[in-house]
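Let's do one together. I've listed all components of the complex below, 966 residues spread over three lines.
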Amino acid sequence: MASVELQGLTKYYNKRRALENLSLDIHDNEFLAVFGPAGAGKTTMLSLIAGIATPNSGTIKIGGREIGGLAPADRNVAMVFESYALYSQFNVYDNMAFPLRSPKFKLPEDKIKERVTHHAKVMRIDHLLERPIQALSNGQRQRTALGRALVRNPDLFLLDEPLSHLSANLRHSMRVELKEMRTQLGTTTIYATHDYREAMSLGDRVAMLNGGHLLQLASPDDVYFRPASIDVAKFFGDPEVNILDAKLKSSGGSKLSLHMLEENIPLPLPPDVVQVLNEKHTSKIQVGVRPPDVRIAREGDKQAFHATIYSFEPLGTRSILTLKAVDGSLVRALVDGHQTFEMDRRTQFRIDPHLLIIFDAESQRFLARSAEFSEEP
Amino acid sequence: MDSNKGIFGLFGSILRNFVLFLYALFVLFPLIWMVILSLKPDEHMVTTTFIFSPTLENFRAVFGQEGFLRSLWNNLVVSSLAVGLSLVVGVPAAYALGRYQFKGREEIAFTFLSFRFVPEILIIIPLYLIYQKLGLIESVSGLVWVYQLISLPLLIWILRGFFEDISPDIEGAAQLDGYSWWQVFFKILLPMVKPGIVAATLLGFILCWNSFTFALQLGGASMQTSTVSTTRFLASDTVHYGWVAAAALLSSLPGVILALLIQKHLVRGLSFGAVKG
Amino acid sequence: MSTASPTQPRANLSASGKKYARQKALRPYLVLAPSFLLTIGILIPFFVAIFYSFTDLTLRSPEYEMVGFKNFVDTFTNPDFWHSVGVTVRYAFFATAVEMVLGMFIALLLNHESAFSRFLRLILIFPLMIAPVIGALIWLLITNPTVGILRVPLGWIGLGDFRWSADPDWALFSLVIIDVWIYTPFVVILVLAGLRSLPKAPYEAALIDGGSAWFVYKNLTLPMLAPVLLIALVFRMMTSLQEFGIIFATTKGGPGDRTLSVAVASYNEAFPYYNLSGAIPMLLFLWFMIYVVCFILIGFWRKAQKAASGAV
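Okay, and this is what the predicted structure of the assembly comes out as:
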């Protein structure tokens, strides 16, 4: 049983507050992605669970058992550090064998050999067992660190940004591998990353941290499509979501439409969104538009906003376009890469109101997003 | 890192080498002369400068002199034991200062350094009285204890730097792997600072070997170290300069040889870890 | 609501959690304990010395009386004491100054790869690894009027009967030369290491922007070298102010009292004359001087370190 319960965790490093009153539950066998920018508190959270740091306040339970008084060695938790933390005086084999030779395990050498070679094969480094650590590439070191964590069959896996020091290609292939390993692992895992793609792809649920606080705990889809606050929306997604001011206007009966960018182009809001807005009596809102949802429209389209091209970044299959709207706001769009755009050229774009994320302007928190998808003509 | 002093071409290069040559002469010549004198027989001492028939009789005489051989041995014993004690006590101290955050850390570290601020004579005076009462005047343990003032700050500060260099994740990883903190210390951290331990030990030994003031007063008659007994050769009525040179040479050999061994870490050692070589 | 804060560190932890945290917090102190015990034992003489400075103890008899500040007053009003302080300061100042300048100069020259500079870097170490006393002895040997080698070249320039340390006017000079011979390599080694660790980028930028060699030296090299230079300065001042062996072996403070530094003077008071009440106040003053100088210099060093790392 390896569920994890964090209750009111707070950690200070001198005067700096790394974690503030963090509470969260992780289910047994769950793969939780902990997402957040640098300094958010991800490493601190993992260190506290592992026991290599002690909290100032709060409790940690693993499998229902309180572990605050246990040394790291007694918690049966394995951690892969961002820096890998391999023992430079040993070769790969001895690094992986090290946990099994500890007083906690004291396995006989033949059993150790069995386990180490098995996991080395899984990590595809069995041909490197004799190599000293200094002679390994980054990717090989990372696998060794993973292997060292695997040999122990722990109750809980902690992975601290394991892919951040790998080259882009390697990161992608390792992500796929990790996903495969996941199903074989069958162990509760907490995975810290600042790359939202890793969080979305690997996590059963995503916990978003910033400034030591938990901003949202939900499925990846929910965090992406229904971010709990504007901050979450901004962090989770690349290019960054567009946050625009908007006005609500009644458009007959119980219908509401949205006006933004100081253009008189009403966007009719879907009924489920209108219902939420009416229930909450919100008047001031802000709107989140994800760049892929900004579509270049044909000239003469009456429903399109006007803009000039502010910047154009061709990136192969897709391009990032920054558009300057009539009121001066910059709107980012992710468009098909086959078109070219010239700077300062006039153009127009449309936004499907079903894809808008509505936030309360004062609390900055999520209000509504339509569950329906309209059909694009 | 190339020229930052504006050396212009070949002329500059010649000038530079000339100046360096002069300095090399300044450094080496006294040493060379010491070697020469030690090989010069008494008869030629005053008459010739460079031309003479070398002889080993000075060395033989020096070894024959009462106590010199013994003093070399004393120095070896005292210096080794002193450094050994500093190691046993100082390595854990360096570990604590280098890897833990705790109140008073910098103050404690500075206190160890400030032992070097105390003039040796100031310590000797009361220590002489105390040792007399304790019967430690002409003893090995007396000197070993005083020598801690020399080797302990050095060891602690050098090793502290080496301990600080180790990534904190390593300790965490080893603990998670199932080891208690002192097992981590012995199995993982100590091997990692081995080069530092070697450098600090050798440098500490050299400093103890070369120590004069403490040994002078607290060694008494029977516990002279070679550094002290060498000076006595010059003080006698009939001075055999060849003997003085031979004794000086013998006394200096360990320092020079060991220094060659620790070249790589010399900078770190000499600056007490303040400057990373 | 969290109840922990920087001022109230541990709240709402489980009992075992608190115990574990406490154990961990105590660990460094426990580990430091042996070294403390060892050194406390050695510091006791220091405090004993302070105590004795308020008495009239001599080594001749075990009885003594408390005399208050009399010893200090006697010492500080004794012109001979201030003469010794002057000798000490002059010795330390000149020796250190020459070593710093010469050391930096040689290090700059040595900062080029060549077989010769590699060789020199190696033999540099030797004067440093010899006991200073023996270094002084060696210099006595080479300046000796009968068997010393220096009388030969000096004879060529008409200084054949230069009496070095036996000459009252030149005794301090001779001692400073010995100190310089022994300790300049210390500065060279440190500065060389500092030069080697200088980043290339600022120099390349200066090359492109076009700065004279002096400009580069003054605005780039010196500030970035400042930490190393200050460390060298601290160690040199600390050692040369309390230098005993060199002076004792060469002149014993003579001729007369020309080279009678505080260290030698106090030794003379304490051991042939057994006059502790005279010796200890002198030494306490010396210690105080060293402490203050080093404390200030280390303060500069900390600032220089911060500045140097910001410059990169």
